Amino acid sequence: MTTDTHSPAVPVRATVFVGRWPKVPVEEFPGIPFGTFAPTTATLVSGATEVVLIDALYLKEDVQDLGDLIERTGKKLTTIYITHDHADHYLGLGPLLERFPEAKCVALPHVIESIKETMQMQTEQWRLLFGDACVLAGPVPDPLEGHTLYVDGSPLQIIEVKQADIHPTTIVHIPEIDVVVAGDSIYHEIHPMLGLSTPAEWQDWLETVDVVERLRPRMIACGHRRPDGDDHAVDTMIAQTRAYLQDFAAAYEVAKDAEELVATMTAKYPNHGNVWTLQFSAIMAIGRRDAAQ
Ligand SMILES: [Zn+2]
Questions:
Q1: Rounded average pLDDT over 9-33
Q2: Please, which of 87, 146, 217, 221 could form a disulfide with 181 given CB 3.0 to 4.6 Å?
């Protein structure tokens, strides 16, 4: 028996919370098929006494469950960080700040500008997609000074990347544990959202995949993944996201219509979940392509 009561330092760790897989839209949405919205994640980064939350979800029940999880850690939520301007990643910040009033919510100034510009439009879209299940738009994050957050002294580096499903957009690197919280730059076994960007931006997105790869993460928290996804399947996630972007861009060039693009991609990626995202992406991309001709 030892009398040494000195306990080792508690290492920082990242815990991925995966939300529900809801049906959409709740009411007829012109030009939008019925299907499901991909499960969305939020990541808790915790140390001995503190928690930093990355992204805040959007479904009332998920935000409640996420708050319960934060509470059960017994640690202090100091900060909520928002990776990018999409309501599925930020709407929950309102109820979370009410529940954890000592926490602050931050994002990069670029991202905040974008949130302010699109909040009205996204609120309307989200209401059609999710109805009352969705948190109403609330406060906007405060600007983050610099690019570093800390949890019990361990740094979280915010990296602004050129493109993911939209831009401006960011990822978070936690060097101490080789984790990347990828926002919507990397997808895992879920059809990526390509309907909100242009073919030139898909090429920029490929550069973001390279950025993530160069960080040599041991674990990647994707913004959307299956509930049973493996966050340590790093090589697969990177390779599949890269291949998917290249395959979609190539198929887009030759597809005669959105249906054919969906058929090509589902044949290549039969195990990817949430075909609705692919249908939406194909309708948007092909619609823009044909309108430009
Ligand atoms: Zn998303």
A1: 92
A2: 221
Find the farthest-apart pair of alpha carbons in the chain and give their distance in angstroms, rounded: 79
Average pLDDT score over the chain: 96
Instruction: Give the model's pLDDT for residue 175.
Output: 97
pLDDT at position 29 is: 81
Expressed in angstroms and rounded, the spacing between residue 188 Cα and the centre of ligand 1 is 12
Higher-scoring residue by pLDDT: 2, 166: 166
The alpha carbon of 89 and the centre of ligand 1 are apart by a number of angstroms equal to 6
Integer Cα distance of 177 and 20 in angstroms: 27
Q: Which residues are CB-neighbours of 165 under 8 A, at least 6 positions away? A: 84, 86, 184, 185, 192, 193, 194, 196, 197, 205
As given in the structure block, the two tokens for residue 287 are 């619609």
Q: How far is the CA of 291 from the centre of ligand 1 (A)?
A: 26
Q: Which residues pair with 253 in a beta bridge?
A: none
- 13: β partners: 46
The pLDDT tens digits for 215-234 are 999 999 999 999 999 999 99
Task: Give 184 Cα–ligand 1 centroid separation in angstroms.
Answer: 6
Torsion of Cα atoms, 79 then 165 then 281 then 90, to 10°: 20
How far away, in angstroms, is 57 Cα from ligand 1 center?
9
Half-sphere exposure of 24 (CA within 13 A, CB side): 27
Evaluate if residue 261 carries a pLDDT over 90.
yes
pTM above 0.90, yes or no: yes
How far, in Å, CA of 34 to CA of 36, rounded? 7
CA 88 to ligand 1 centroid distance, Å: 6
